[in-house]
Amino acid sequence: MKKVILARLSLITPPGLRTDLLTSGMVRPEQVSAEDGKVLVPVNVPEDFAGDIAETQRLIEERLSGLEGVEKLLVVLTSERAAPPPPPEPPKLRKRPTEAPGRDMRPHSAAVPGVKTIVAVASGKGGVGKSTTSVNLALALRGLGLKVGLLDADIYGPSMPRLLDIHERPEIEDERIRPVEKYGLKVMSMGFLMEEDNPVIWRGPMVVTALMQMTREVDWGELDVMVLDMPPGTGDAQLTMAQQVPLQGAVIVSTPQDLALIDARKGLKMFKKVDVPIFGIVENMSTFICPHCGKPSDIFGRGGAEEDAKRLGVPFLGAIPLHMSIREHSDAGTPVVMSEPDSLHAKHYRDIALKVATRLFPEEDED
Ligand code: ADP
């Protein structure tokens, strides 16, 4: 089966290129998998690729999908590079329809069928606990009786496979990817499609393609809310995401040592640029709670995020302490909201979820 697929791929020359997919190294035979009718073709797009990538993807799909034995086909665009991506053309920002009719760059909310609302969880930099917050927020929203999806858009370092202890690949049915279900959440992560320990760095346009696939080509079913775990930072990829996905609002995660919240400020600015309301700031790794004596210590000082939120005129959603059990549960794939629902930590996340839900569904709250 794989041989036939590779043979077919060797006959495809991407438009604009002289060599076929295998000779050019864009498709590496060892990365192609074909099992039980499920075929995954990662396409490594070189930095200086001069051809038409969308057309290349279409050609692969066209040539392979008709093959006998191919039931499900997934063509994933990747780019492995050591250097950070060059800044792409400055993206055109969404204009208010009143200013420029017909130039609204952002798809209408209805663009993700079945998904009522999407909330982004973002951070100015990595390692602040954005993904831990996303997953616990998603679980706490679920605890409010909402149908919740979790999209790990952190394609630079997807963490949902680890945080939710998911090792299976998503099923593909009728050419639609089915999210993996865990703890009552529908979860999709690029990490499910990538090999572990094989970091992939994406270029701007690919990020958009991947994100589009993950939001629109995934069979999310009916969701009240999709929690979108953004890649850390406020670069072009993040800006494009904030623009391209119909977001109801954004939650910014920050740590107290980042007292001046310089990075978090950039996050606020980015969402303001694209007219996405900021639901508020979560201060993560706030007070340190000693696992031995249970006493709190304010290692990094306290209240930085709260004061800054006030100064910046955005709501403060809450503070999550720096605690061993949050880290342990997070890294063991059993987030605290699920594994220790009666703990104070879980309560913190539930309080934040309630505030987020109130912003997401204001009219229902007024009843
Ligand atoms: P990010 O998504 O911002 O890169 P992660 O959610 O992956 O960050 O968290 C980074 C590390 O910090 C993980 O090991 C996680 O378990 C840990 N962590 C996150 N929040 C807390 C917390 N409140 N207390 C203790 N450890 C935490």
Structure, briefly:
With 367 residues, the chain is of the alpha/beta class. The chain is 32% helix and 22% strand. The chain folds into two domains: 2-79, Fe-S cluster assembly (FSCA) (GMP Synthetase, Chain A, domain 3, 2-Layer Sandwich), CATH 3.30.300; 115-366, Rossmann fold (3-Layer(aba) Sandwich), CATH 3.40.50.300.
Task: Describe the structure in your own words.
This protein is α/β, with parallel strands linked by helices and 367 residues long. The protein has 2 domains: 2-79, Fe-S cluster assembly (FSCA) (GMP Synthetase, Chain A, domain 3, 2-Layer Sandwich), CATH 3.30.300; 115-366, Rossmann fold, CATH 3.40.50.300. The chain contains 12 helices and 14 strands. It has helices at 2-9, 53-65, 130-143, 160-163, 204-216, 236-244, 262-273, 304-312, 324-332, 336-339, 344-360, 362-366, and strands at 33-35, 38-44, 72-78, 115-123, 148-152, 171-173, 176-178, 180-182, 185-189, 223-229, 249-254, 278-289, 296-297, 316-323. The strands form 3 sheets. Strands 4, 5, 8, 9, 10, 11, 12, 13 and 14 form a 9-stranded mixed beta sheet that branches. Strands 1-2-3 form a 3-stranded mixed beta sheet. The protein has a two-stranded antiparallel ribbon with strand order 6-7. It is elongated and about 65 Å long. It starts with a helix and ends with a helix. Mean pLDDT is 81; it is low at 81-110. Bound molecules: adenosine-5'-diphosphate. Residues 123, 126-132, 159, 232, 284-285, 320, 322-323, 326-327, 330-331 line the site of adenosine-5'-diphosphate.
